[in-house]
Design goal:
By secondary structure, this protein is mainly α. The protein is 76% helix and 2% strand.
Length: 213
């Protein structure tokens, strides 16, 4: 039993999830508490994404550099990333694309989904997941993504929306969109990119009809 618990803890990549949340929260703090504007933040994130892609490009072509990187950052790397691109450039790219293409509130919501709903879904899926619906995706993890995203959408939108029925519709459909976007990572698509980009598209359509923001 103890070995099973330890195995699950290792599978959860807690250090990786902490880094995932820390990076996103750091960005959100810059957004809410600094003098930087969205148009400046999007270029910062895009620069990080490009820099990380360039670094990975050369890392994957140098066995010596790659071995050092894997050894130094093994606690926050998936095994599949030892010989492929890391999640960091996709994470930064997802944030920057949201800021470039979506209304500000929609962009921030899509980033909140990435920062909190994604790791929460993974955590619940690994710890309690029993019913696999796609490779590496469980029903329990998908429900967790839906619930967390719906809560985030409700709390964020509650400040500006007084019509409760509109707020509930927006929150529920936002949760559905995020849970579907999270499932796409089963098809070798990085959810660090799909969650903010696809949730932004879905919420933009919702907002067009409901007019939350």
């Amino acid at each position: 039993m103890e070995e099973m618990i330890l195995s699950k803890r290792q599978d959860m990549h807690l250090s990786r999830k902490f880094f995932h949340v820390f990076f996103g929260v750091s960005f959100l703090c810059l957004y809410f508490f600094s003098n930087l504007l969205v148009k400046e933040l999007r270029w910062v994130c895009l620069s990080i994404a490009i820099g990380a892609f360039v670094f990975d490009f050369f890392r994957l072509r140098s066995k010596k550099i790659n071995e050092k990187v894997v050894k130094s950052f093994s606690s926050i790397m998936r095994k599949s990333e030892n010989n492929s691109y890391l999640g960091i450039p996709f994470y930064a790219l997802g944030i920057s694309l949201s800021l470039f293409f979506y209304q500000e509130d929609i962009a921030i919501l899509s980033i909140l989904f990435l920062v909190f709903a994604d790791p929460f879904a993974s955590f619940i899926g690994i710890l309690f997941g029993k019913d696999e619906i796609l490779p590496n995706k469980t029903f329990e993890g998908t429900v967790a993504a839906f619930v967390m995203s719906a809560i985030i959408a409700f709390l964020y939108s509650f400040v500006v929306e007084t019509q409760m029925i509109n707020l509930l519709i927006f929150s529920i459909f936002s949760g559905i969109i995020v849970s579907l976007a999270e499932l796409l990572s089963s098809f070798n698509v990085d959810d660090n990119l799909t969650i903010p980009v696809l949730s932004g598209v879905g919420m933009s359509l919702l907002n067009y009809f409901i007019g939350i923001f």
